Amino acid sequence: MRRITVKGELKSAQRMTFKGMVFYVFRHVYPPAEDTFLLAEHLEVGDRVLDVGTGCGILSVLSAVEAEDVVATDINPYAAACARLNAEINGVSERVEVLVGDLLSPLREEEIFDTILFNAPYLPTGQRSERLSPIEYAWTGGEDGRMVIDRFIQQAPRRLKPGGRILLVQSSLSGVKRTLRELRMMGLRAEAVDEQPAFFERIVLIEALS
Ligand SMILES: C[S@@+](CC[C@H](N)C(=O)[O-])C[C@H]1O[C@@H](n2cnc3c(N)ncnc32)[C@H](O)[C@@H]1O
Question: Domain 6-209 sits in which CATH superfamily?
Fold first, then answer.
């Protein structure tokens, strides 16, 4: 992979505004869409927030308006660079730390959060993770759409403070009932709390409380 520079990426970046804030979206980074906005409408986050799969960082930046401390992760290094830039230009970079890596693995061992956000890659694609380009990580959910969601559910609950909550977005094509069942098996109270119709599916927001 070539070296990522903000100057280089800005040449082909899209510029968008949301809730009065400006965001740049680099070429290999997921452009915020209906699933992002569904989650954004439910951001009451508390002091410490984890934004898994941050993309251009939009949910981290919005969270940092209220939260004292936001940690963002993404497996795509272009997304991490883009999220750092958007935190900077929106004046919240001191409260947003962006880490590159798989799901929750970049976190320090003792870290726990009031809110954990994940607009997950959820499309059933049949593709395997070792063959993906950086942008394909944004939507590729493997054979049944659950390749990333299932691993997230195994990792996230123990990172919640007592009384904390997970907000997870996925498609109706990739097993909402199964997600609710798995979250409940991890000891959380989980419900689908909102949804948005899309072309062939519903985009569903799931809330899970510790
Ligand atoms: C649907 S996009 C959402 C981006 C952004 N949060 C938003 O709502 O616009 C999913 C994001 O998850 C990231 N992602 C996919 N698999 C991941 C993994 N195993 N660990 C960390 N991030 C991952 C992708 O690179 C992508 O940025």
Answer: Vaccinia Virus protein VP39 (3.40.50.150)
What token pair was written down for 109? 């061992």
Among 26, 50, 119, residue to substitute to test ligand 1 (most atoms within 8 Å of Cβ): 119
The per-residue pLDDT string of the chain (210 residues; one tens digit each, 9 = 90 and over) reads 678 999 999 999 999 999 999 999 999 999 999 999 999 999 999 999 999 999 999 999 999 999 999 999 999 999 999 999 999 999 999 999 999 999 999 999 999 999 999 999 988 887 666 678 889 888 888 888 899 999 999 999 999 999 999 999 999 999 999 999 999 999 999 999 999 999 889 999 999 999
The whole-angstrom separation of Cα 186 and Cα 209 is 11
Hey, where are the domains in the chain? 6-209
Contact call for residues 168 and 103 (beta carbons, < 8 A) = no
Give distance in angstroms: CA of 56 to centre of ligand 1: 9
